[in-house]
Amino acid sequence: MSENIDPGEHTVEQLQDELAEIDSPRELEGMLDAEKDGQQRKTAQEAIRARMREVGPAEDEAVEEGTETEGEYRESADEVEGDQEEAASASDGGADDGSDADDLALDPAEYDIAEFGPAIKGVDDADELEAILAAEESGEDRDNVKTLIESRIDKVTEDAGETGEIDPSELSTAELGNALQGIDDEERLREVLEAEQSGEDRSAAVNLIQNRIDSVQEEEAPEEIEVVPPEEKHPDLDHPTADKQYVKAIEDGDYRDMWVYCETQAGELIDVSKEMLGKARELMDTYNEEYETDERVIAVLIGSDVEKHTEDVIAYGADVVVHHEDDRLERFQHKPYTELFCDMARWGGDPTADEGPEEADWREYDEPRYTVFPATNNGRDLSALVQGELDSGLASDCSDLYIEEAMISNPAKTGRPGTKKEFERVLHMKRPDFSGFEYSTILCLDNPTREFHPQGASVIPGSFDLPEPDHDREGEVIEHDLDLEEDWLRVSVTDHDQLDEGVDLTGHDVVVAMGRGIGDDPTEGMELGIDLTDAFEDAGLGVSRGIVTGSYEFAGHVERYTAEERQIGETGQVVEPDLYIAAGISGAVQHKVGMDESETIIAVNTDPDARIRDFSDFFVEGDLFEVLPELTAALESGELDVEAIAADGGATDD
Fold first, then answer.
1. Phi/psi of residue 409, each to 5°?
2. pLDDT digit string, tens, across residues 334-343
3. Nearest CA to 634 among 645, 619, 623?
4. Which residues are CB-neighbours of 494 under 8 A, at least 6 positions away?
5. pTM for this predicted structure
């Protein structure tokens, strides 16, 4: 396996990018085994197998006869050669061998993606599916179509394992792994193991079969864990969730769609709302293709005069817009906004209410599957209150979202110690962890005694690209009707002042950022940063959170440059300049998310192992008090060609 790539450390999307750089079947085979022994994601395995079909064993990677892996690599080579022969036959007409389009069970070139999904379900022969795949690869070569075919191959192979005998000599290691998942009989598994050991005796295949045997034995042995509700386990404590009969009344609930709370400020739809809609559209399009369903993106608008934004949110990706209008909600208020959102989420589905609302005619499910909120001041408050009221979980301040299966062994989730359970359609919510140097991925999973929906997240502004609106998109607009209780409106805003917009660093070609490295002389350090900024034609000066929250003493003429309004990072501004210069900044994840989209990054730091080095184009090991004056002098004298540095993104031999 490649020393540089562990599939378990990558999302499927990231893994696909990495796979494009690998040409060794040996490394790919190792990655496939690692994925199957690790997270066991079908989509990841499909991506690796697809790359294996694209490359054959290189001549310089031939395996000596007699080694334990000879059979595996010969098998990979045979598979690749067979696929190439099929593809060549499909491309040249295949008149001699009968593999042309007329002999295919269906010709993928005659279908678009929407039609192809239902059509491929009618093909149950693995050989025919392989021929269709070869035809697609030699024809239009569409990734989404190939994924559908490969998924169908896996399904057919798995079904064969459930109903018929398995001859391991006829299956690749990947196909054997899929087939084994459908077998729960230990005796049948041992027969397959004996067949493999008396045949090719591939070490990877033997390990797969033995792991499946161990898994079946573990599933049969332990008893279920008894789960005691918290209000019964600790009757002496106050448990507000014990009163949430609504959640308890939902058994085997129906959850659908991704809901996006679209925040407005001063009557305008803010950018992060548009960013989340674009991401939600992307996620649900992939979701519907993967699971062959038709779930939607639901936009939620609450406030005064928000109806005017319904066409815009549809243009940015929503299928349905649910809005509530009330002049008293011109400004955000915790109680009414929470009650309104939760009522929308439960609309017509409250099994405990004596006189609940009439059932909504636009949806037929209990609660949303996913909810997404902006990680703004108001969005953070609302997301926590809504998810708490719906008695589910929340991952705050996320910078990425994706949907995948998850293989979990935690007994609290599986109900049995020593067993694994695959959870489908899980929203993976990625956020910087508390160390500041790593990311954590948060999952909201059901346990054996109750369901946790919706799976909720709040998203850091600037985490996703701002999508281009499509004003030709059509969507459904739903007006939500609920009388607000006076008790919900106990707080009212009688007067307010508009704060100055502050410092906007997002429009500059160059951003200079100062960090804790100024500690030896804070005032002089900031002065050096100001001088360097002034040496550029269009530059702004920013700071890390360490400057804002630190106990530094600054002289008055530089203090204004250290204010929170200039902070760059997770809780500050997100910038994408042509050139970003980080002086004395270690590279915590919270700072990274605010600047890692910069075209070219130059870091100055005395620590050669500083994290920022990992994502910088140029790293200068040195003291900023010595380096910055030299940079400034070189700029002013014309000796430093900044445009050339920014243009090549650090791709130099120097």
1. -115, 0
2. 999 999 999 8
3. 645
4. none
5. 0.56
